[in-house]
Amino acid sequence: MTDEIINNNNKIENDSSLTNVSSSIYTQKKFRVALGGVIVVILLVLVFFAKSLALVNLSNDQDLISHALTVNTSVLHAVNHYQINQKYSGSIVAGRESDHGFDKAGLLAEILVDEGDTVKKNDVLARLDMRRLNARAKELEAGLAEAIALDQETTALLDRAQASYDRYRVLLNKKHISDQKFEQVKFDLIALKARKVATASTVDKAKAALKSLEVEKNMATLTASFDGSVLRRYQDEGTALSAGTPVIRLIEDHRLEIHVGLPLSAIASLVIGDHYNFDYHDRKITTTLRTLLNKIDQSTRTITAIFDIDPSNSAIRSGGLAEISVNQEIKQSGFWLPNSALAESHRGLWSVYTIEPYKETSQYGTLSRQELQLLYTNGDFAFVRGTLTDKDRIVTNGIHRLVPGQLVRIHEKN
After folding, report:
1. What is this structure's pTM?
2. Which of 49, 79, 159, 394 has its CA 20 to 30 A from that of 268?
3. What CATH number matches the domain at 69-85+331-412, 1.20.1050.10, 1.20.1250.20, 3.30.70.20, 2.40.420.20?
4. pLDDT tens digits for range 225-242
């Protein structure tokens, strides 16, 4: 009986253990199903949020694109040099311009020209009082006549002495005269020869004095040294002049030239003998480069270039100014930009907007600001260097409406 009860108890315990194990397995399965459901729900929620975020981003992109400004752009190309055009002013001067005066003192008798008159070379401009010179000429002419007469007399005496000497020498050889008598004739001949030299010299001296006087008379007549115009008349008739006093200022206005001070960098592009144009009162002047001076002006640190003005150019006045444009090549790497693409930055720098493609599209882009150094501008374009690279795309105008990071629509100009 007791064994039966124990067996029943053992059976009940075994059934209870089995029931507990089954319950545990069921609980685990239920938990797994519930966990799987939670995971599915989470995944669904994530997918929903991802789709919602994508829709939001798409909506934002569409909104940004719809409000994107259209900008004109250009692609940059790097270069290793640039050419600048500089204007330099030069003075128009006469080929020759000088004060004419007498090299001897005298009384100014007459002036034959006035300011503005045109003269030719060797035309008479003025004369000194010639009365003293004329009187001196007559005196010298009389002296010359006297010297010639004495010279002729001496010549006759010399001829007679020579004849006597020849006869006495024959007689001496025949012992018909004494040695003393022959020596007297000989010494008379020698004295007359010396006298002949003196009288001939006196004649030459008188002739030279007359020639000198003739030169003085010529110098008392003031003539033009070259073709030109009378620029100024300094003196009037009746003035007592000292030597070298200017009377007339003459200018060679038919042959004009231009003197221009140029830096060494500009000289390199000039060729002597080539033709160059100058701007003069809204007209062009044709010139030829004649020479470059071999000295640097210490005050301006420039070299003077002299250009001959073509005579066909008319109505040009000495003393005016003319401008020449000279091209200079500068070795420097950089980029040419339109001036409208530049914005003033800080510390003397400038800036430009470059465009980066927006999400790998070629139609839209975002803006970045690049700092630049301005090297040269020719009015419409500027040559710059900075953080740009070759093939960068820049905004060419309307930059006042833009900010860094802004989305823009690209309009290609090139």
Report:
1. 0.56
2. 79
3. 2.40.420.20
4. 999 899 999 999 999 999
